Amino acid sequence: MNVAQAFDAEEVIRVGQLEIRYLQPSGRGNRMGAFELCVPPGSNVPPPHSHDNEELIYVLEGTLRFTVGAETRVLRPGDSMTTPTGVAHAFSNPHAVMAKALVINTPEISADYFREMAALINGGGPPDKARMMETMKRFGLTPIAPAPAPAVAAAAG
């Protein structure tokens, strides 16, 4: 059943360098969410994370480097990659032009998550990392700590 719900299709949520525009109403317990994601050249965000939903990313313009688990691929227009629930993933745009992608999540990640993160990140000064972690957790996201650097053996002397 399609239920028409009013929402602002022109709202662009800016989280640091990223721009997110939802393509349907969000935050109503939707089983699926869709948004357009714009990633400027040189961006290496977000940090690796996992979440409680499945995700599909489909590149519309430009090129993204997308890592899911141990697999890294370069995605160009028409390419896609999926992320299963609970699997670490990250993306970047190490290229010279803006990248745009369609992102579909099931269940959705509410636009409220991105609004709250935008308020924390764009607020001026260093963001409150504890509040960022709490916000991520509340919306079902888990940051992944970087792998520890390999131990260096002491030189025999």
UniProtKB/TrEMBL annotation:
InterPro entries: Cupin_2, QDO-like, RmlC-like_jellyroll, RmlC_Cupin_sf
Name of the featured protein: Cupin type-2 domain-containing protein
Pfam families to which the protein is assigned, alphabetical: Cupin_2 (PF07883)
Organism: Achromobacter animicus
Domain Cupin type-2: 37-104
Top-level division of the source organism's lineage: Bacteria
